[in-house]
Amino acid sequence: MLAQPNTPSELKNVPLHALHVSCGGKMVPFAGYEMPVQYAAGVLKEHLHTRTSAGLFDVSHMGQIRLRPKSGRVEDAAAALERLVPQDILGIAPGRQRYALFTNDEGGILDDLMVANFGDELFLVVNAACKAADEAHLRDHLTRDCEIIPLPDRALIALQGPKAADVLAKFDAAIASMRFMDSGPRTLMGIPCFVSRSGYTGEDGFEISVPAADAERLVTTLLADAAVLPVGLGARDSLRLEAGLCLYGHDIDTTTTPIEAALEWSIQKARRKGGAREGRFPGATTILRQLEEGAPRRRVGLKAEGRAPVREGAPLFADASSTNKIGRVTSGGFGPSVNGPVAMGYVPTPLATPGTGLFTELRGSRLPMQTAKLPFVAPTYQR
Questions:
Q1: In order along the chain (383 residues), what is the average pLDDT of each group of 10 residues?
Q2: Which of 230, 241, 323, 337 has the lowest CB atom count within 10 Å?
Q3: What is the pTM of this model?
Q4: Is residue 254 part of a domain?
């Protein structure tokens, strides 16, 4: 899952590249960048440390974009962005952020992203592999209303885990009073940052956008705290899988609708049938119909018997002898916190009820599986 078809000469470096190498990071290609997959502690310890203390992740490969309204009214930028997503962007209060989805005319997902309202502009974080296409998409549709300002000169780090708030509060006491999905400008160690109380591990934590020139100083100081351990992409993937969170290009893509992906919770009442701003986004006909009638397939959690992980791409069958594939695994691996294999995948909706028995193929043999309720590990967000 982590390897990408890039040659070393094609890979970009994140601002913290030298620090990763000096910390013993094992560097691998990912989304066009050379990124640390793990450090000396290893994936298992990094995963468990994040669940019990605080893990520090570099996610600077992600795209950061400002949407600055030409009118000076952030509401106009929000209304413009609503033309591209099924979420209620006008309903995001200043100082808050929301998960959103760019959709296409068929209702498929072009990318998932975070949208924050900074009071005078919107701040977007998009996926690394999609950021060039996302920026072009925004320019194609929103330049009449917004300045689209990419921020390649900023790094992005995530501090995740139950001790994350205590660590950051040493530099800004008001951090402790932030709630899940609060977001806005903050000053840490004299550095102007954008801080949100969010992340992609299922744990309480923060994402911090910091000028690239100041990133190493900030991260080095955080790593000096005994509670903080550097964590690579390997544990980031196992943490988000246990949390039941989608990885773009694997669990969601242009052929997947939000309803099939079990992401209908992200579509607020104002954009649904009968809402104040019903529809008016790409793929609205399909998405609104599936909200009312259901989708033909659903993303589900999957648990297998035994200890062997079931990986992405594994086929799913309704019974032990059938040759008719009914679905496939989209993410899979070993879950350190649940001490067993966990996976996600798509099955026909009638088979999506938790506890439904299925089979997969592993090393030429049929392996029993069950659909499972997501997430595998309960989130600890500070609401």
A1: 53 97 97 97 98 98 98 98 98 98 98 98 98 98 98 98 98 96 97 98 98 98 98 98 98 98 98 97 98 98 94 97 96 97 98 98 93 98 95
A2: 323
A3: 0.96
A4: no
**SS3 call for 219:** helix
Cβ contact 88:271 at 8 Å: yes
CATH number at residue 227: 3.30.1360.120
In a domain, 130, yes or no: no
Indicate if 31 and 175 belong to the same structural domain.
yes
| Binding residue ranges | 207
Q: How many residues does the chain have?
A: 383
Range of the domain at 303: 296-382
pLDDT of residue 60: 98
Q: Answer yes or no: are the C-beta atoms of 333 and 238 closer than 8 Å.
A: yes
Name the binding residues for substrate. Answer: 207
Q: Is residue 363 part of a domain?
A: yes
Same domain, 39 and 168: yes
The pLDDT assigned to 10 comes to: 85
pLDDT at 8: 57
The number of distinct structural domains making up the chain is 2
Contact 135, 63 (CB under 8 A): yes
* 342: in domain: yes
Interatomic CA distance for residues 100 and 359, integer angstroms: 33
